[in-house]
Structures are given as C-alpha cells and as structure tokens.
Amino acid sequence: xxxxxxxxxxxxxxxxxxxxxxxxxxxxxxxxxxxxxxxxxxxxxxxxxxxxxxxxxxxxxxxxxxxxxxxxxxxxxxxxxxxxxxxxxxxxxxxxxxxxxxxxxxxxxxxxxxxxxxxxxxxxxxxxxxxxxxxxxxxxxxxxxxxxxxxxxxxxxxxxxxxxxxxxxxxxxxxxxxxxxxxxxxxxxxxxxxxxxxxxxxxxxxxxxxxxxxxxxxxxxxxxxxxxxxxxxxxxxxxxxxxxxxxxxxxxxxxxxxxxxxxxxxxxxxxxxxxxxxxxxxxxxxxxxxxxxxxxxxxxxxxxxxxxxxxxxxxxxxxxxxxxxxxxxxxxxxxxxxxxxxxxxxxxxxx
Length: 351
Ligand code: TYM
What we know:
By secondary structure, the protein is mainly α. The protein has helices at residues 16-29, 41-44, 54-68, 85-96, 99-103, 106-112, 121-135, 149-165, 167-172, 231-239, 259-272, 276-283, 288-315, 318-346, and strands at residues 3-8, 34-39, 76-79, 141-143, 177-181, 184-188, 194-196. ATP binds at residues 9-11, 17-18, 145-147, 204, 213-217.
C-alpha cells in the first residue's frame, strides 16, 4: 500500500515556500494515501545545537499542519525525537552510506560553509537521518520542495544498498517484498521511494533576489512571506518585492531571464491553482503596479485564515500536545515492527 512520509524542521519561521512547496501538498495527499507528517526536531539541532524555544517551534509547526487542514485522526502527526527508531535506524544507515555520498550533498556544503571541519558530525549525517525517517515507515512517496531532491536520491541509494548487501538475509528471514524502482522491479526489504516534486511552486525564490530560494534563515524578513504575517505585512512585502521595470509578458517564454517576474507569476499560479500560462494570458501587458495588489489579495485570502487558525491552536497548546503524543504512539507501533525486522536482518539479538 502506498504510504506518504514528510517532515518539516522546527527552526525559524514557516514561509510561503514551505506552504506551497510542501504543506499544501501534504493536505491534498490525505485523500488518497496513508500519511505520516513529522516535526523533525532531531534535525533541528544539526546546524545549531542550542535552539531558542524548541518546544514552541515544535508546537508552531504542528499548529501550521493542523491549521492548513491535516487531519491528525485519519493520519499521523508527531515529533521525531519521540520515536526512538529514527535515531536507531539512522545509526545503521550511517554504516550503510559512504562518507563520499555525504560529502557530495549540496545542502551540507552550503550549510557548513567554508569551515567544513568545524560543522557538526550531525550536519554531515543529516541525510542518513532523513532516510531513516522515511524508511522506518517504509514510505513509498515523499512530497517535498525541489531543494530536497538530492536527499531523496540518497535515500533511494541507501535503501538499494541495504537491500543488496543484505539480500540473502532478507530472503532467508522471509522479509523480501516486491520493490519497484522506475521501470525495474526486484525484491528487497526497503522500498525505493518516489519523490513528489511537482507543480509551479517546487522552488519559491526570495522576494529580494530571484537567484536565492525563499528560506527560513534569510536574515532579511522582507525576503519571505511568513505564514504568520498579517495582511498588512503581506501586502507590504509584495509591494516591496524586487521586479524589473517591464510589463508582464503574455507568454511563458517572456519570463526567461526575468527570475523575479517568473517567481511572482509562479506564486500567483500556485496560490490560484492555475497554470502559469493562464495567469500570463490574464495579466500579460500589465504593469507590476497592477499585478502586485492582485497577488497580495490572493495571498492574504489564503494565508490569513491559516494564521488565524494557528494562533487559535497556539493560544492553548494542550490540543497540539495531545495530537503529538497520540501521533508518536501510533508512529511508534509501525516503527517498532520495522526495527524488529531490521535487527533480525542485521543480526542483532533482541527481545
Ligand atoms: P525544511 O524544514 O527546510 O522545509 C520543509 C519543506 O518545505 C520545502 N521548501 C520549499 N519549497 C518550495 N520553495 C521553497 N523556497 C522552499 N523552502 C523549503 C522543503 O523542500 C521541504 O519539503 N530535510 C527537510 C526535512 C525532513 C524531511 C524528512 C523531508 C527531514 N526528514 C523526510 C521529507 C522526508 C527540511 O529541512 O525541510
């Protein structure tokens, strides 16, 4: 059966990129799949160990999940550190993955910066924990933004190497199941996960620089629309967003070499759930002074109810805390079954 897993880090402000690239897709997948949505608090300490108000950050991501429309009764919402299998399986994957694989990760290179020797070992091993998150539930589909693509390829590599290296033991333990990877089908224990990276919003860019992605860690608050921004802040940030002086083109081709225009049109298209070409057919030939207020209205119409709902959840976090506790129990039951199998495959004695 298809199973979806995805995670969001409880660091910094959730923004429009997180919403359009990930959370809104989480909501849509609930109709067709069994889903686990995780607040990845173990990942949150990889780049910076001591976090400001980590409990508050975890609750805030959970509030965003619920406010956006994730149903924690039908699906599973939890925080990662509560289910010990994540850390346990990550350790085993640290022994499956090669150092060279980790060194090639562009996100590691970016986050570690020049002083790589001084980055935490956890930051290097980050993708191995991410593979553990997904494979602990033997998830088949992972909705993410474009920036996570390389990490998901590594997850596939880890699953394939584990399946290959332990093939005989998996078979002998009767744990082999059919696995499909693209066209090929084989047998193994872990699925070869499909990334779900589709639509016009897989990579929302900074409002101040069309060459940088919108990010929680950008020092300029004007670079992003936070999920918790009020209507005035949203309108102001869109008004101040960088653009070129030309009118909007009427065809997609006209967005080439115009990264800021392309980004704003992409945001409009994603929010309106319309193709970009359709948006251009309507706004082609018009100035940004006309387009920006329309975009601001659209953004406020979608984000304001979500942020109001988030505030309502956060005013009394007891519901959020209960959701996370219940989610961890249900996730833990799936995780325990996987860890039993994995321990048998590797050869660890267990209860
Ligand atoms: P994180 O917390 O940085 O981001 C959460 C989700 O938002 C997407 N995203 C974007 N999408 C479009 N445009 C943007 N500018 C943008 N910025 C962020 C991200 O791609 C992501 O889907 N490593 C992950 C968390 C993680 C995870 C996992 C994800 C941990 N374990 C297992 C999937 C499966 C991360 O740091 O996401």
